[in-house]
């Protein structure tokens, strides 16, 4: 009896009709009826609605989630906006306050740095020439002109010499540093020099009108209105012109410094008389000039 056969759906060889797998290629054999019967199910499965995905419950849950997210977003944006406004207000307040403080500081600096009209800059070559003017000297300290001779630029002949007294002045000096105080001590040969003191400065020019060198005698004495005097030998007097040799037809600028004491009319002499010493020939030591006397009042107002 012949066994019913069929052909393999994969390799095409003849196999028993009851075989579920091909004995040659091993492919599972599916009957046409089973394949057709499964198609409706496949179609149904593919076309069947998905109630869970689009169910009203799921839609309500999704909408609620979106609503909650929007609420939180609005809250966060609101907090951020309020924070930004507060920071901007704080920044505006700071900007408004700063100029006020800055302007006050500038006004204070201007008040501090306001220049005294009587001050002469320390690096200037100009010398105080009016009563009240002052200058900070790196050598002696602050020197204020308090008195000025009434007859500046007076020239007096003394044999072959011409002596021009440019000016006599009374200065009030304050030594700002220890070096300046030491400089004053050396000038006036004082061991206990005070930081504040008064002095007389006499600036003069000596010209030799001869053809021979002359040994100038310098200032030997200064007499004050109350009768007190300062001699060249005293420690309180220093003169650069003393025993200074002046070449023929030459001139030299000299100055004398005198430390004033309480005996000199309360440190402000109303007048002075200047006496110069004899001058000699630089080679023969013969006297060529006997010395001169020059008197002038001291003015203590502008």
Please characterize this protein's 3D structure.
It is a single chain. The chain contains 3 helices and 18 strands. With 302 residues, it is α+β, with helices and mostly antiparallel strands. A hairpin with a 6-residue loop joins β1 and β2. The chain is rod-shaped, with a radius of gyration of 58 Å. The N and C termini lie far apart (161 Å). About 10% of the residues have low confidence.
Biggest sheet record:
12 strands, mixed
Q: What oligomeric state do these chains adopt?
A: single chain
Helix count? 3
- Structural class of the secondary structure composition? alpha+beta
Please count the beta strands (DSSP E, at least 2 residues each).
18
Gyration radius from CA atoms, angstroms = 58 Å
Residue runs with pLDDT of under 50 for 5 or more positions: 34-57, 95-99
Order of helices and strands: EEHHEEEEEHEEEEEEEEEEE
Distance between the termini: 161 Å
Shape: rod-shaped
Q: Give the mean pLDDT.
A: 81
Q: Helix amount, in percent?
A: 25-40%
β-strand percent reads 25-35%
List the helices and strands and how they pair.
Layout: E1 5-7, E2 14-16, H1 32-47, H2 56-113, E3 119-120, E4 134-137, E5 141-149, E6 154-158, E7 161-174, H3 178-188, E8 196-208, E9 214-216, E10 219-224, E11 229-231, E12 237-239, E13 244-246, E14 251-259, E15 271-276, E16 279-281, E17 287-289, E18 293-299
Parallel strand pairs: 3-4
Antiparallel strand pairs: 1-2, 4-5, 5-7, 5-18, 6-7, 7-8, 8-14, 9-13, 9-16, 10-11, 10-15, 12-14, 15-18, 16-17
């Amino acid at each position: 009896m012949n066994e019913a056969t069929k052909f393999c759906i994969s390799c095409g060889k003849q196999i028993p009709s009851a075989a579920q797998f091909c004995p040659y290629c091993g492919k599972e054999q599916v009957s046409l009826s089973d394949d057709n019967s499964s198609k409706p199910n496949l179609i149904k499965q593919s076309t069947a609605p998905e109630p869970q995905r689009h169910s009203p419950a799921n839609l309500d849950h999704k909408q609620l989630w979106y609503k909650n997210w929007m609420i939180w977003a609005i809250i966060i944006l609101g907090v951020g906006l309020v924070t930004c406004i507060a920071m901007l207000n704080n920044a505006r307040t700071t900007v408004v306050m700063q100029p006020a403080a800055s302007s006050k500081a500038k006004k204070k600096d201007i008040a501090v740095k306001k220049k005294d009209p009587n001050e002469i800059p320390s690096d200037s070559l100009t010398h105080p020439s009016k009563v009240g003017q002052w200058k900070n000297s790196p050598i002696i300290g602050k020197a204020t002109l308090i008195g000025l001779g009434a007859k500046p630029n007076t020239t007096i002949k003394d044999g072959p010499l011409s002596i021009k007294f440019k000016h006599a002045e009374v200065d009030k000096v304050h030594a700002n540093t220890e070096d300046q105080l030491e400089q004053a001590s050396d000038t006036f040969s004082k061991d206990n020099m005070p930081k504040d003191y008064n002095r007389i400065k006499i600036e003069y020019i000596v010209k030799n009108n001869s053809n021979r060198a002359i040994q100038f005698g310098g200032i030997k004495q200064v007499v004050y209105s109350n009768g007190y005097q300062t001699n060249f030998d005293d420690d309180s007097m220093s003169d650069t012109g003393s025993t200074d040799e002046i070449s023929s037809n030459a001139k030299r600028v000299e100055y004398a410094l005198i430390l004033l004491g309480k005996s000199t009319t309360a440190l402000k002499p109303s007048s002075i008389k200047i006496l110069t010493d004899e001058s000699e020939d630089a080679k023969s030591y013969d006297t060529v000039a006997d010395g001169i006397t020059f008197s002038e009042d001291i003015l203590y107002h502008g």
